[in-house]
Structure formats: C-alpha cells, structure tokens
Specification:
By secondary structure, this protein is of the alpha/beta class. The protein is built from 11 helices and 4 strands. A 4-stranded parallel β-sheet has the order 1-2-3-4. The longest helix is centred in the last third of the chain and has 42 residues. The chain is elongated and about 95 Å long. Keywords: Membrane, Transmembrane, Transmembrane helix.
Length: about 300
C-alpha cells in the first residue's frame, strides 16, 4: 500500500499547479495596483468660466485625457448688499459667473457628451440653490441667477432626452463654505436674512452632506434635489407643471401642497412687516445720527 501511494505521488506532480497559482496571484496583484494608480490619478484643467475660449480648451483636454461621465456645473458666487447700493461691476461678475459661466460650460461640453452618451451613461449636475425657489434677501441678482439656472436645467432636461443624458439640479440651503463670508459682511442685510431666510451660520449644511445628495441624484437620475426640510417645502410649492420623479414624492406633494400654501399666507405678510419695521428703524437712526450710520459699508461688502 505504501508503495502504491509513493507511485501515485510520483505520477501526480503538483508543482505545476502551484506555479499556476503563483502566476495567477502575481497577475491579479499587478492589475489591482495598475487600476488603483490609473483611477486615482487626477488631471487638473483650470479656466475661468467667463472665458469661453479658455474653458472650451480645458474641457477638450480633459475629455481627451478621459471621457466625462458626470459634468458638474458648480461655479458660483454672490455680492451682498441692496441692489441700488452695489457696484455694477459686482453685479455683472455675479451674472457672468453663476449663469453665463454655466451656459459656457454646457455649450462647450455638450457636443462631446452627446457623442459619448451613445455608448455610455452620462449625467449633468447643475448646482442651483434654495434661492432658485425663494429669494435670498439682500442678494437679488444672485437670486435671479439661481432662478435662471433652474430654468436652464429644466429646459435642458427635455432637450437631452434623445441622447439619454440625465440632468439633475441641486438646490441646497446655506452650506458651510467661504460663500457665507459674503452673507455675513453687511450687518443690516445679515439681520434681515436671519428673519426672511432663517439664516444661521451655525446651522449651515456641511459640504459632505450636500455631496452625498449629489451622488444619490446621479445614481437615481432625480431631477430636482433639495437637501433639507425647508427645501422639501419650497420644492412642493414651486415645482411647476413637471411632477416629481417618484410616485411617493408626488403623493407627498399633493397631500401637503395646501397646508404649505396656507403657511406661506401667514409667513410672507409677517416677513413684510419685519422688513418694513427694520428698514424704517434704520432710516430713522441714520437721520438722527448720520455719523453713526455706515454709508460705505455696502460698497465695502461688494469690493
């Protein structure tokens, strides 16, 4: 019996199997690290969204390096202060960056995205704001750009149906970024912003929180995305003719539309009273104590 087992061991040489297993392990290890290095390598193209030619070149170079699966139009800024007190140049910069910059980006990228979408899924994310549904007090031009971006996204959503390119418009609330520095510059505007828009920097949403909603929207293809309970109310009241993406959301909005609208009938008159009272108080103070008023603060906040 022992002789028989020795004969079997001599006939079944397992060394070649061990060699194949080692080779398989080495090949797997190679492809793992190769893919890790490839997918973690990032290229950077920098351009001003207001400069269409430079932006187009950057997009073409990025697409040549690797096709764009998700295009995020996120450039945005504001210049706080009352419209009549702001410098015209600041208002133009706000329009040029927020809205025209988004149009430039889309115009330059869409021909490439349309060709690529024939064989690969493509998504476009446009970052608007809750200001696209309800004003941001003391930031009238910023509010206008966000309304425009939401309208742009809705129009683009239907234009791109033949190409199966999904469009999402993200409407976050106040987010903890340097953007809020501008909201805090003018004390008068900030005070009323707290009343009208319930602004409190301590309650600002984190960038990770907003990013998680963006990723979820890309995966699900949801069009209108909000990131907090107030956004849920605003979306219900201002969605327009196009219904929500999910049946449950449609039912929710049908059920709560009337209560939310009734709440707005109370809230808006209250806001008007507060704004009128605060501004009249400031006017009386500036009339009685002109040296204590700060006529230059609006110019400083928009420089």
């Amino acid at each position: 019996m022992v002789g028989y087992l020795r004969a079997m061991n001599s006939e079944l040489d397992l060394s070649w199997i061990c060699g194949l297993l080692r080779l398989f392990y080495i090949v797997n290890l190679f492809f793992y690290w190769a893919s890790f290095l490839i997918w973690t390598y990032i290229t950077e193209q920098v351009a001003d969204v207001a400069d269409y030619e430079a932006l187009s070149v950057s997009i073409e170079r990025a697409f040549a390096w690797r096709p764009i699966d998700v295009l995020v139009c996120n450039a945005g800024l504001t210049r706080g202060g009352y419209l009549g007190d702001c410098m015209l140049q600041d208002l133009q910069i706000t329009m040029q960056t927020n809205f025209i910059g988004t149009v430039h980006t889309l115009h330059a990228a869409l021909p490439l995205l349309k060709r690529y979408s024939s064989s690969n899924p493509v998504s476009i994310v446009i970052t608007a704001s809750l200001a696209s549904m309800f004003l941001m007090y003391g930031h009238a031009v910023y509010t206008a750009t966000k309304y425009a971006m939401r309208g742009l996204a809705e129009g683009l959503r239907f234009e791109l149906i033949p190409y199966q390119i999904r469009v999402s418009v993200i409407c976050p609330g106040f987010t903890s970024t340097p953007f809020l520095d501008e909201a805090d510059k003018d004390a008068d505007v900030r005070e009323l912003l707290q009343w009208v828009d319930l602004y409190n920097r301590r309650w600002a949403e984190s960038t990770n929180w907003v990013a998680s909603h963006v990723i979820a929207a890309i995966k699900s293809g949801t069009f209108l995305v909000t990131t907090n309970p107030l956004g849920l109310v605003m979306a219900t009241l201002s969605r327009g003719f196009v219904p929500a993406d999910s049946f449950l959301r449609v039912i929710f909005e049908l059920f709560f539309y009337v209560p939310f609208r009734l709440a707005s009938l109370i809230y808006i008159p209250l806001v008007r009273l507060i704004v009128r009272h605060k501004t009249n108080t400031w006017i009386r103070k500036s009339t009685l104590c002109p040296m204590e008023s700060s006529p230059e603060k609006h110019d400083e906040s928009t420089s």
